[in-house]
Amino acid sequence: MVSNDFSSDFQNKMSAKIVIAGGFGAGKTTLVGSVSEIPTVTTEAVMTEASIGFDDTASTPDKATTTVAMDFGRITVDQQLVMYMFGTPGQARFWFMWDDLVRGAVGAVVVVDCRRLADSFDAVDYFETNRRIPYIVALNRFDDRLEYTIGQVREALEVSGDVPIVDFDARNRSSGGTVLTTLLRYALATNAAAAPVA
Amino acid sequence: MSYRRRRSTRIRPYTFTGGRTRSRHPLMVQTLVSTADPSTEPPTNLMPESQSIYRLCRETRSVAEVSAELDIPLGVTQVLLSDLAELGLVYIHPTITGISPSENQVLERALRGLERLFQ
Questions:
Q1: How far apart are CA A70 and CA A86, in angstroms?
Q2: What's the pTM value of the predicted model, to 2 decimals?
Q3: How confident is the model over A16-24, as a mean pLDDT?
Q4: Residue A147: pLDDT above 80?
């Protein structure tokens, strides 16, 4: 309970989440792994078919269950703040899990494999349609080269003009870190723009 | 496949939770939880899974980490943690979602922290 009173400063600890989305094999898990301070952890969520569109599965106990695995990593930012990166399940049929994962995230990164742009349509479409949380697009540089310019990718994936698109190397820690800082900077700018004028 | 078979011989996860799938407290995957009084043993009337959670959370960790470390599905972990919080045994830490403008300070701190870590 939030109202517990006990003297120690450990309850000052808090956390935040960044969602890492993208097509299957685009480099989501690689990105999570290269920025995380711990080996990537896989946890599983048991989803019922009834979760699609309904919150309460208690009334439909006979629905089939599906186990969905997701990867996550952690960055201890300072003594008080821990940041978690969660990779969304790549397969499109698990889209219903995204709402749960995306809820409460400070932002999202859509990792795009330039050689297979079409694989990112679902993820970009999801964040463009909802616009509930700030998101950026990160082009994963395979073989050290980009097949398309950032402008071409923006056009092809129909990414809004204000959404940052960066290129990076998912295997490289500092390159992955730049993706996260770009996202946070964009999230802060978005919040500032949305704040009512005092 | 063999994994599934092993699963089916076990008690179904939601039996633990009395069929409930929603927790009463805002427990997201990234939410940190700690045992309220780490120096004590868990009450013996708790289910074994809840006792394990109680012991594990003597050190602060996220809901997702509790789920992964104890191999309890996420949804079940959330409900059990919610019950422990209800009993005052587990403390639920604030989660920064960036929705409230009052959280901007924390986000700025996060940005500075990440810039420092990845420079």
A1: 7
A2: 0.84
A3: 92
A4: no
Give ipTM to 2 decimals: 0.82
Cβ atoms A49, A64 nearer than 8 A: yes
Just give the CATH number of A11-193. 3.40.50.300
pLDDT at B61 over 90: yes
Residues contacting residue A84 through CB under 8 Å, at least 6 positions apart: A15, A16, A17, A18, A72, A73, A74, A75, B29, B30, B62, B64
Of B93, B106, B113, the CB nearest to A11: B93
**Under an 8 A CB cutoff, do A77 and B95 touch?**
no
Q: Taking a C-beta distance cutoff of 8 angstroms, is the pair B36, B98 a contact?
A: no
**The residue count for chain A:** 198
Q: Do A4 and B98 touch (CB under 8 A)?
A: no
Strands A135-140 and A165-168: parallel
**Residue B45 in tokens:** 């009337």
Bridge-based pairing of strands B32-35 and A165-168 is unpaired
User: What does DSSP say about strands A14-22 and A107-113: parallel, antiparallel, or unpaired?
Assistant: parallel
Q: Which of A85, A71, A81 is nearest to A36 (CA)?
A: A85
DSSP category for residue A8: -
Among all chains, which residue has been given the structure tokens 């300072």? Answer: A78
